[in-house]
Design goal:
alpha/beta; TIM Barrel; UDP-N-acetylmuramoyl-L-alanine:D-glutamate ligase; 8-stranded parallel barrel
Length: 485
């Protein structure tokens, strides 16, 4: 059997259950949640009881389109019709297992070091299980191996390697960059109250962590809409796309606005916003998240709850309070919820000068005021703070304050009255660059460069403060394709 390495991204391993029916029901839910390979790990059942369970297990997996693996016992694998067996170092000899099972069944082998990994590959193993990745309750004597050990093992063999031991939704991202094909998960799946939902969450996370190198990175914008396309979701999607990531969105509100002002706002319900976020995180897990306009406390709580639930990282919060044309976009009670619920989840916050004043409680009139406000906001929520200087009169310098200290990013003031959506654009560009793996300072520098280019294109649309040219980087020939000959 040829093994598709993608099946190994989330390798589900059963835990002890009260009955065979309960265990098989959990296996069914795990497969429904996205597990494509499941290992039956049974320590109590022996003989005919184990074989009877294994036959039902193999039939269920076959019916539902998942691979079935039996732990330790090649003979039970053969008799039950399962797709393969996983052998520990003290189990049946690998070559004897291959002779018994033939070439069409899978054999996985536990390997804790490079020597064991090479021997397993030479003996005909199809994949390796290596660990423990973290401290685990299923094997209390297992000692975690470090990142360098994983890199050595994955670099020494050509067959896929799966991390096992204590892996869950909170620590899985720590396994990125080690050459692993996936992670084996026991308790985080089969100890969950909702096995299907938790498997779906972990599968989306695993797809993000263990996807092949060079894949297109993804970013999610959570914000309001702008029907004229200069700000909000529309600007975010353009910006993220032009900065080289696949852009997704969850809409917090439909905003009726143009370059002259805001005519009305129709909020999403918290329930519908949560549903949008569930659909994104459980299918195409974002490498970064930008949060823009959120106008009410219930929506802020909904977003914060889902970001925590799915372990979102590289979160950029642009605290949009007032539109460029001057209309208020945030209810009064939402500011406190923003500070309590959302800002502590951010990697970086990107307020302009008025927003930084509102968040810090300070009046900002000078560069030193920007520095003090950034420090105060950082101390209150623990996230890095980029105070944008676009509201200053003489320059467009921004100040970043983080745990590493403060840094000024100088920018020239571009004489362009059309600045609709500058904040949305900068924060989305930062998120796109974080998604691609750039450090925070580099992401800010690249985002400022992109924003300057969009402003310098001097697009002039609308009767008020118009939009920028987000597509200024496109080949001019492509931009002329709609022109008449």
């Amino acid at each position: 059997m040829k093994l598709n390495p993608k099946a190994l991204r989330l390798y589900a391993v059963t835990a002890e259950a009260a009955s065979a029916d309960v265990l098989l029901a959990q296996v069914s839910e795990a497969i429904d949640g996205g597990a494509r390979i499941v290992q039956l790990r049974e320590k109590k059942r022996k003989g005919e009881a184990l074989l009877a369970l294994a036959r039902r297990f193999a039939a269920l997996c076959r019916e539902r389109g998942a691979l079935s693996i039996i732990n330790d016992d090649a003979e039970v694998c053969l008799a039950s019709g399962a797709d393969g067996v996983h052998l520990g170092q003290g189990d049946m000899d690998l070559r004897a297992a291959r002779d018994l099972l033939g070439p069409d069944r899978l054999i996985g082998v536990s390997a804790h070091n490079v020597e064991e990994a090479k021997l397993a590959e030479a003996g005909g193993a199809d994949y390796l299980g290596s660990g423990a990745a973290f401290a685990t309750g299923t094997k209390r004597d297992a000692r975690p191996i470090g990142p360098e050990a994983y890199r050595a093992i994955t670099g020494a063999v050509s067959i896929p390697v799966v991390a096992i031991g204590g892996v869950n939704g909170e620590n899985m991202r720590e396994l990125a960059g080690r050459g692993l094909a996936g992670a084996a998960v026991v308790s985080a799946i089969f100890g969950a109250a909702d096995v299907k939902s938790e498997t779906r969450r972990l599968r989306a996370l695993a797809d993000s962590v263990f996807a092949e190198e060079g894949r297109l990175r993804t970013a999610l914008s959570i914000a309001g809409s702008d029907p004229t396309g200069g700000a909000g979701i529309q600007a975010d999607l353009k910006t993220m796309t032009m900065n080289g990531v696949f852009a997704m969105s969850a809409i917090t509100a439909m905003v009726a606005e143009n370059t002259l002002g805001v005519a009305g706002i129709q909020e999403s319900t918290p329930e519908f916003l949560e549903l949008q976020l569930d659909c994104v995180f459980t299918d195409i897990y974002p490498d970064a998240v930008k949060v823009g306009m959120v106008s009410s406390e219930p929506l802020i709580r909904a977003i914060a709850g889902k970001l925590r639930r799915y372990g979102a990282r590289h979160v950029v919060v642009d605290p949009v309070m007032v539109a460029t044309a001057g209309s208020a976009l945030m209810e009064g009670g939402a500011l406190g919820a923003l500070k309590r619920e959302l800002l502590p989840l951010a990697e970086v916050i990107t307020p302009n000068i008025p927003e930084a004043g509102a968040l810090s409680g300070m009046e900002i009139r000078s560069a030193s005021d920007m520095e003090r406000a950034a420090g105060a906001i950082f101390e209150s929520c623990g996230a890095a703070v980029l105070v944008k200087g676009g509201h200053a009169l003489r320059d467009a310098n921004d100040y970043l304050y983080s745990a590493d200290g403060g840094r000024w990013f100088e920018g020239r003031r571009i004489d362009n009255p059309n600045t609709h959506g500058t904040g949305c654009t900068l924060s989305s560009a930062i998120a796109a660059n974080l998604a691609k793996g750039y450090a925070l300072e580099a992401s800010v520098a690249r985002a400022k460069e992109y924003l300057s280019g969009a402003l310098s294109a001097m697009l002039d649309l609308g009767g008020g403060s118009g939009p920028m040219d987000h597509a200024f980087r496109l080949d001019p020939a492509l931009r002329r394709r709609a022109e008449k000959p």
